[in-house]
Design a protein that fits this description.
285 residues; alpha+beta; 4-stranded antiparallel β-sheet; 8 helices; 4 strands; 63% helix
Length: 285
């Protein structure tokens, strides 16, 4: 099918399409280019006899063309990063950075900040192993099944991701507790120290529990957040059949079956890896 136009577009429109086309994802670039090429050609020939309106129409259309190209690019980034481990760690790091900047602003300088963080940091280093022990001891093991850990490389990647996530959560809890208690240090230093220890412990416990829960809701291979939850079974048949939720990896790596209740025959979740040949079979059918 030919996409040639009856007459060429003006030079400005051709340059604009060529420049903004580079911002469009490669998979959608050709269709986007031909669509906007036809739209611009139609506008030019429709407003040929109305020169007074041609300029305003072309300005509006050029703005729309630019917004459309940028939206396609940002949407491709959103689809590529949505639910990924990279996005999770980046957001946690950004929150830590914002908290550190807030601490710097409250302290008034780097030297004052180092003095204000010296004692709380030593207390936090003593507090962290205790908080981690309590969290690991009370965390649910329903999402940890030895037979579902997969290959060694995937297991190592999951552990490294969890370690980085837990480290950032602990750092964020320390910085947030410091920011909250910073105004109390001058009038009530002892109260501020006690409050800082209590607040950091509470935030650390909540954050580490979230880290455990988030880890159990991710794919064993790509570490993306699992989606499309589906209810399977009936709660009244817990003793007779499986009952719970199933989550699927959007990349097609597998499915996670989470039981609604722990029973003697089903205590943990089960990760079901998709057969590598399933995609080929589905494509043929």
């Amino acid at each position: 099918m030919s996409h040639s136009l009856p007459s060429p577009l003006p030079l400005f429109d051709r340059i604009l399409l060529r420049i903004l086309g580079k911002a469009v994802p490669a998979a959608e670039r050709e269709e986007w280019f031909h669509t906007w090429q036809a739209e611009l050609w139609h506008i030019h020939h429709r407003t040929r006899s109305r020169r007074s309106q041609a300029l305003s129409v072309m300005v509006d259309l050029s703005i729309g063309l630019m917004r459309d190209a940028l939206w396609l690019r940002t949407d491709s980034w959103r689809r590529a990063l949505s639910g990924t481990a990279t996005l999770c760690l980046s957001l946690l790091f950004a929150l830590c950075l914002l908290s550190a900047l807030a601490s710097l602003a409250l302290s008034g300088g780097w030297h004052a900040l180092s003095l204000n963080l010296s004692n709380p940091s030593r207390r936090f280093l003593i507090e962290t192993p205790l908080v981690a022990f309590v969290t690991f001891a009370t965390a649910s093991r329903r999402h940890v099944k030895p037979s579902a850990t997969g290959k060694t490389m995937y297991w190592i990647k999951r552990q490294l991701f969890f370690a980085a996530k837990a480290t950032l959560v602990l750092a964020l809890s320390f910085l947030l507790s410091t920011d909250i208690c910073q105004p109390l240090h001058a009038p009530l230093p002892i109260t501020a120290d006690l409050a800082q220890v209590l607040i950091s412990a509470c935030i650390s416990l909540v954050g580490l529990r979230w880290a455990f829960h988030d880890q159990g809701q991710r794919c064993n291979q790509c570490l993306r957040v699992l989606s499309t939850p589906a209810r399977v079974g009936r709660p009244s048949h817990n003793l007779l059949e499986w009952n719970g939720n199933e989550l699927v990896c959007r990349q097609g790596h597998g499915m996670l079956s989470i039981p609604e209740m722990e029973t003697s025959w089903c205590r943990s979740s089960e990760w079901i890896t998709q057969n590598p040949g399933w995609d080929r079979v589905a494509g043929v059918s």
